[in-house]
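User: I'm putting together notes for a lab meeting next week and I want to include a structural view of one of the chains we've been expressing. I don't have a solved structure, so I'd like a prediction I can at least talk through. The sequence is below, exactly as it appears in our construct file.
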Amino acid sequence: MKALEQVLLKIQELPPFPPVVLKVLELIGKEAPFKEIAKVVEVDEGLTSEILKIANSPFFGLKRKISSVQEAVVYLGEKYLLEIVTRSASKRYYQSAHEGYDLRRGELWKHSVACALASEVLNKRLNQKSDHTLFTASLLHDIGKIVLNNFVKETFDEIIKKVKGGMTFVEAEREALGIDHAEIGGYIAKRWNFPEEIIDAIQYHHEPRKGALYARKVHVCNVLCSSLGIGAGVDELYERFDSEVLKELGLSRRDVMMLLCEIQQLFEKTQSLFSMEMDNGV
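Assistant: Thanks for the context. Below is the predicted structure for the 282-residue chain, given as structure tokens.
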């Protein structure tokens, strides 16, 4: 069986993204009442437990114990609820080490969370409001690596040889395997019934000018976090900003430097929350 056929079969083995999370994202996007959102969350025991645990953590420092999802939703607000729900649902895909990309256990998860946080920092820098679609796309942008990891490991020497010959890592993946992790990520997002904006952003985050605005923003978030060394694998060592994308978004060199500082500060600030999530399954 050819490598590409094996890769496509592997996609079918990936557990589906929890429907309850997609419903919560939909409700938040529609600005549904907190009570309606809480009812959907309560159906999932694991998600309920996660939300209550985090709501009662020292990170939020609430003076009274939160004992129901409805209370948690009200206290946390849409922003934190979105972050907790999407991170809780996605972390199970990142549990293993990903040796094909030279990533130890938990590093891909760390990079994914950092990129999601970076999306909020980026939108703030662009004077735009927080965007749950961008947050989700940034969090899941490298989901294709979960499927492609072992195949990259088996053809690593060939891929690196092509990279040293002038190809990008993604181009080398495509040349060696017939497909790259970004394209696989797009397939996965489509299979999970995500919105077109998220599918496009995941598929084109390494080739942002082929995609729409979300792909450009996720590209910037990815390179920012890789530049900071947050969960950056061997492929990210070769990643660079697309200068045309920076220009299109109106980001100067000074803006990039400020973004790097702000992302680092935010990531460090949320380390206690991140560590709790790591201890709870990753």
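A couple of points you could mention at the meeting. DSSP finds 16 helices and no strands in the chain. The CA atoms of residues 208 and 242 lie 8 Å apart.

User: Perfect, that's what I needed.
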